[in-house]
Design a protein that fits this description.
Length: about 230
Amino acid sequence: MAGNVGRPRKQSPRRSGATAREEILDASAELFTTNGFGQTSTHQIADAVGIRQASLYYHFPSKAEIFLTLLKSTVEPSLRLAEHLDASAAEPSEKLWALVAAEARLLLSTRWNVGRLYQLPVANSEEFADYHRARRKLEGYFHKLAVEVVGPDDPRTELPFHIALTAVEMRANDGTVPAPIVDDALPSTAVMLADAVLNVLQAPLPKQRTEMMLALVQGTDPSAPVELGA
């Protein structure tokens, strides 16, 4: 009898994820964030998912491609929002607040602290150039908005992006989601960091800023492609 005999599971699924690809990413995120990149093998990833090692390559051609996918997941949603905000009529301080809150919320919404993966030495490899292009482009939006708030010669313009990233230092890496994304609220940490950015820039906080940010996010398409420059 015909069937999917080419890629059988070794056992029942035991990872978080609606698909085998998502399960692989979940297992990889745990192993990379706890053991590092070099100390994690594709055999370990496959075993953690409960699939054969050969089956893993059906979804990802290499361990580096899995790592790149996880890296890009920490910036691309915020980059899509930044591109949307850039075309909006909101005030620069409102856009900046929304962008900081969005990036912090993203970093708090995963089971494993994948936002920290960029700190691993291997992340500087040329293999991950796509991630670095996306990260530079996102950082550029943060800088541009800060310049619009305080002017081009103010050294504080470099702070908003890095303040948003402190969300990775303020969460655990224990397999629980610190703050699942919901449609009607923001994590208190995301609000705090976004407020801190405008306080550092000595800009007034927007009125009803949480509602404003959520409305702006709802206007974006999370599946839209991200155009990256060189």
